[in-house]
Design a protein that fits this description.
Blueprint: H1 10-22, E1 25-27, E2 30-35, H2 37-44, H3 48-55, E3 60-67, E4 71-78, H4 84-119, H5 124-137, H6 141-148, H7 159-172, H8 176-183, H9 186-198, H10 211-215, H11 218-232, H12 237-250
Antiparallel strand pairs: 1-2, 2-4, 3-4
Amino acid sequence: MSPEIVHLKGAARKLAELVLAHGDYEFEGFIWLQGNYASIAEHLGFNEKTIKRAVAQSPFRHITRRTAKDGKHVLIRLGSELCETDHVYRLRAVWKTGLVYFNAVASEVWAIKAIQLKQQGAPKELWERLWHKVKETEKTAADLEKLKAGQKISYDVEAYQMGHLRGIVKALAEDAPAALACLTTFEGWTTFTAYAKAEERFSRHYHWPTLGVIVTNLDLALQTYLDTKQATADPDLAECARLQAKIDSLTPQPTV
């Protein structure tokens, strides 16, 4: 018997035995049991909620997927090592949480700026545009209260955004979470867009962190993280050198 499951009981034990006996689906370097919660629960003689609770605990790892061939299904395996999709899911949480806090800061900054512009007699469209952005930030106010209360928020994103997150994971590897967390701060995003503007990477201004812009300018994303890191803490020279080497490898080369 696998040492991973000797301590398991009830539904968790039965599920682990099923994974070991019938897991044969290869995905991202691991072997998984492929199926859906309803059929697995029926096979094992438990209700679906019980199986979902078991899967959410160690030593299980699971991924919910939807493909053209298999439709919506779940992959389940034993073990603690993360696959690429696990890293993408973790980065998605960093992204969604970061946006909530970005909006909280941006709301205050833009509101103050709008008031100043109005008092200075600036054209109405300028300060009204800022108030419109403040209204947009309020859409995540409820999520901010949940996070402050220690509650969970939805990490759902569009399919194309999952693709962008996967691209960031593949390119930045272990640096992806810290770099993305940096870019979802107000100062981090402002710095990133300033770098991009200086290098004429894009013509329009992006007021909010945008995954499509980040994934196509990963050298600037990592440069922003490195510069922020150096400005806020005593830099580890070896770590800075490692990050700079990665930045250099990501920087687009001029065409001849």
